[in-house]
Design goal:
It contains 16 helices and 19 strands. A hairpin with a 5-residue loop joins strand 6 and strand 7.
Amino acid sequence: MLSGSKEGREFLDNSGQIVKCQQDGDYYSIAACFNRKLKLIKELIEKVPYKKDCKEFLDYSIAKVINNIGADYGYIVTINDDFTIDFISKYKLPDELLNKLKSSVFSKELLKKRIKKGTIKLVTKSDLCVSEKHILHKLFLQYKIKSLVEVPIKERDNTIKGFLVLVSQKDENIFQEHIYLLQILTSIILVLLKDHRKHEKRQKELVKAERLKILGELAGGVAHDFNNVLTTIIGFTQMALLKSRNEEIRKLLDIIYKSSLDAKAIVNKIQNFNKTSYDKQIDLHNLNSIVENVIEMAKPKWKNDYESKGAKLEIIKRLNSKRCIYCNEHEIREALLNIVLNAMDAMENGGKLTIITYDKDDKAYLHIEDNGIGMEDKVKEKIFEPYYSTKEARGTGLGLSITQNIINEYNGNISVESKLGSGTKFIISFPSYSKVDNIKEENMEIPKYDSVKTLIIDDREDVADTIKELLAMLNVESDIGSTREEIFRKITQKEYDIVICDLAMPDISGLDVAKEIKEEYPNIKFILMTGWPGDIEKDKLVNVGYMIHKPCTLKDLIKGIEKVVE
């Protein structure tokens, strides 16, 4: 602020005090200096938001301050809450000197002391001549430093978040007149740094959201391809189960079939990973049956891993539960398989795995116990935390966290007992219900539709062949078409009752096929198959009598035929 007569003008100095100057030259020199300071502040505020990240912003800030003040070099250091270094941004600071600073003044203990003190530190060569034991004495001599100023970067509550340090090799008194300005600049830098961090966080969230969107689109395409493959695997496995009378072969086929259904459930999760909820089949399932499936699915691991090492794994089963649990069978099987595989990992050189089920009050219980390496208490306390892992590169740490979430979703409970060197036991319980006679799909009564004629439309020959073979088991006469010309040629040559058509094909959409067929042949029933995620708008399904999601089973086809025939 400037005021007064030409002879005795007043100005506001760096400490905020009003002083007088007698000469016009002094006045204009002060005004020019004041303008430079205002310009520096203006440039920081205006140009900093355009820096791409916090590091670039701090690099820009320290360069601007040094060039305006007339220092030779310097740095800004920001500090985390645990007294570790967050950022170091330097300008013209020799790398050798920076390394020495890191090993001395940047140590955690010294940072704590400086933060606790929290004052501006101004050190000159003359000061150090008096105290040769000062930590900076050797550095001043080696790098011909004459003056150094350290200004804490403070929050409003005086919490220190870092330091601004400037060095001069020319003038011992250069920083004294700039102390007040440096305090203002550190406050501005902190405010802008916090804004930059918020901006960076928002940008990262936007990038993450965009990546998730792209990942969702990619997942949809990959899941569609998987569903086509699974349609063939599930279809022919079902046919083999229905035709085979060899119990050993049927047992192996049943594992393939159930594993394929589990794969179908996993693909469904991939398709719906960005939805808040999605439909999944929940029903009563026999606990012992699920456990037996899990043991069979884990068999290849112990057959391969243990036998290749010459080790032996003994499995003890005492499956005494007589009740059922209400759940999605595939999810529970996935959760229990994860626990069993973890138990095997804990017994790399062989051991004993004990699996027990029993009923108590209104609950069904499952114990999975190994005599492997066990866990320390601190590990046991964290075992269900997301991303926690004891397997280092061999695992993601997601397994037991997801396992717990799945079990909890069906009102179940899981706990763990373990001691280092004495093995681990997982205790799982579910609300239980009276046993129901679940008719296995492969043993169900197969209806016959001798008079039904069907046209199958799919660009994948293997999928179309699978559907045709499954329909043959229902005594349904069927033909296959893949191109538009072939489809309408067959329809004009033969009277079909049902058309089963894929939704997405390279040259034509299943919905367009449905519209064209229904316009010309309104009595033909139309079943749409899709391996893509997401719901189709109702107004687009006006020509569709029933929709089947790939990979489809024989039961799905029966439901579809029954629905449209009605």
